[in-house]
């Protein structure tokens, strides 16, 4: 569990696949952004048994870091478009 120092977490992305969520979480953590991963319904249990979550994963970050996190992810999208 991420300690947000009594700040509210803000939803950054919703409905991600297990693989997408893992990649994004790794990227955000590498820049020092605390991340909270939440699954819907029995998604976490399904992820343990099957390795995938059919219900999607939500990613939360501290409210004051949402803009920085979005900038990092937008830069990734721009880089992918250039490489294609």
Describe the structure.
This protein is an alpha+beta fold. The protein has one domain: Hypothetical protein rpa1041 (Alpha-Beta Plaits). The protein is 46% helix and 21% strand. The protein contains 3 helices and 3 strands, in the order βαβαβα. The protein has a 3-stranded antiparallel sheet.
Count of helix runs: 3
Q: Give the total of domains.
A: 1
Q: Write down how many β-strands occur, each being a DSSP E stretch of 2 or more residues.
A: 3
CATH architecture: 2-Layer Sandwich
What is the CATH H-level superfamily?
Hypothetical protein rpa1041
Shape: globular
What's the overall average pLDDT, rounded? 81
Biggest sheet architecture:
3 strands, antiparallel
Order of helices and strands: EHEHEH
Strand order, sheet with most strands: 1-3-2
Q: What is the CATH T-level topology?
A: Alpha-Beta Plaits
Radius of gyration, in Å, reads 14 Å
What's the topology here?
Blueprint: E1 9-16, H1 18-30, E2 36-39, H2 43-50, E3 57-62, H3 66-83
What is the compact description of this entry?
Helix content is 46%, strand content 21%. The chain is of the alpha+beta class and 84 residues long.
What structural keywords apply?
84 residues; alpha+beta; Alpha-Beta Plaits; three-stranded antiparallel sheet; 3 helices; 46% helix; 21% strand
């Amino acid at each position: 569990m991420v300690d947000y120092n009594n700040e509210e977490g803000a939803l950054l992305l919703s409905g991600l696949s297990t693989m997408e969520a893992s990649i994004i979480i790794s990227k955000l953590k590498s820049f020092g952004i605390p991340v909270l991963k939440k699954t819907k319904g029995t998604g976490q249990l399904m992820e343990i048994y099957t390795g995938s979550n059919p219900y999607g994963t939500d990613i939360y970050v501290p409210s004051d870091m949402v803009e920085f996190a979005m900038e990092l992810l937008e830069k990734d999208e721009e880089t992918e478009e250039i490489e294609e």
